[in-house]
């Protein structure tokens, strides 16, 4: 579990760094357009479309890392069928989930329009953009927001179906299935507690990200333009990893105790260890 948790934190951190430091997108939704203001532009003059491609793919990789966390829990919890057992199958599963965000980003950037005419078309939707539109090298990713929306919807659906399957299957096994009777009630109780903690850890930053994503969807569908709201939503998206870290420390007792120990607020560390031969795993809570 440590590996997939670390993977999730790394992608969350990298997504925050991409949005909040390396690229800093200044967007003009409801048109899929904007300009990067980050380090990659100011100091390295990297192509804006390439920055967009990398930033979108890295943020999307957070979704794959969440899938890996729940797949790991399901694999360690369930002893019956309907789980990945072979090493080749797991490698293929990981490869598909890692590659899919980059593929979706590639598809979404395949129809880049001619920029001069696209900017004139944009002014029909946003007749009075902020002065930055005229002063900065703004790029138009597409004049058809529906194509981007479709790619993002497919990406979201791809991850949502997997996560729901792993959550439902693990919950059924821990709470209803008679096949889990071989495990002691104390072990099952601790595993349920840990599984709920993983769900809460993921749902807190997910709920925070839902706010800007919902606004952008509303903006695109209704052609509503509000530059302050655009900037504020990207600010929220760029710090979602911070909330994920806070959630991890708050939820997991071992992490919380360690932080308190480092800060010299608590001297004794308490570690809960579950060892179950029937489930062939050792779990730390």
TrEMBL record:
Signal peptide: none
InterPro entries according to UniProt: 7TM_GPCR_serpentine_rcpt_Srh, Nematode_rcpt-like_serp_H
Pfam families for this protein: 7TM_GPCR_Srh
Keywords: Membrane, Transmembrane, Transmembrane helix
Superkingdom of origin organism: Eukaryota
Residue runs in coiled coils: none
Segments passing through the bilayer: 12-32, 52-71, 92-112, 148-174, 194-217, 229-252
Protein name: G-protein coupled receptors family 1 profile domain-containing protein
